[in-house]
Amino acid sequence: MSENTDPLPDWAPLVHGLRTRFRTRDFTAGLELVTAFAAAAEAANHHPDLTLRYGTVDVLLYSHDAGGVTDRDRRLAARFSELAREREVTASPGESSVIELGLDTADAAGIAPFWSAVLGAEIQNDDGYLEVRTHGADAILWFQRTGAHETPRQRFHLDVWVDPREARGRIDAALAAGGTLVSDDQAPSFWVLADAEGNNACICTAAGRA
């Protein structure tokens, strides 16, 4: 049996951040875990997004100033895992995912202000791609460059970001449910799938990206 060399097995590297879900026994246990996380974050002067629900605590670690994951995030992730283990709380990184909506357009700058107003969120530039984001990390909508053309059959598509360890299972489930594989040319960064009517969606991971 090969040794697990993943330095952060409790965490999923998703778009712009490290994410996981901690499975707590009840709300009180979750609140106690969040309190411990908050103390560790204050000590590190690095503050995550925490979502407390009955039975779960979801965490997003992301360096806003760097626009992605840094060593500060990795150190705090390792510390959070220690705190969870001390309390016999298990992590379920495979349950973490991010859904983005992509819109094909030849003029992102021309239409982005409309979508920013409709969604009540800010326009940000991510390596030349305009995105409408909330909380500085999650894109509600991003604009995929295309050439000028008449309106195609589908202009919107879903990008579903998953833990790289979960991608194959998600793809196999979609194919078993009647979908087809359109392209795996960019795997493991993303796979393009389609439903029975030809509507596309992408399963995306952080693997294979610069």
Automatic annotation (TrEMBL):
Keyword vocabulary terms for this entry: Lyase
GO BP of this protein: tetrahydrobiopterin biosynthetic process
Molecular function as annotated in GO: 4-alpha-hydroxytetrahydrobiopterin dehydratase activity
Pfam family, one: Glyoxalase_6
Catalysed reactions listed for this entry: (4aS,6R)-4a-hydroxy-L-erythro-5,6,7,8-tetrahydrobiopterin = (6R)-L-erythro-6,7-dihydrobiopterin + H2O
Residue stretches making up the Glyoxalase-like domain: 102-204
Enzyme Commission code(s) on record: 4.2.1.96
Family: Belongs to the pterin-4-alpha-carbinolamine dehydratase family.
PANTHER family: PTERIN-4-ALPHA-CARBINOLAMINE DEHYDRATASE (PTHR12599)
Protein name (record): Putative pterin-4-alpha-carbinolamine dehydratase
Native species: Tsukamurella asaccharolytica
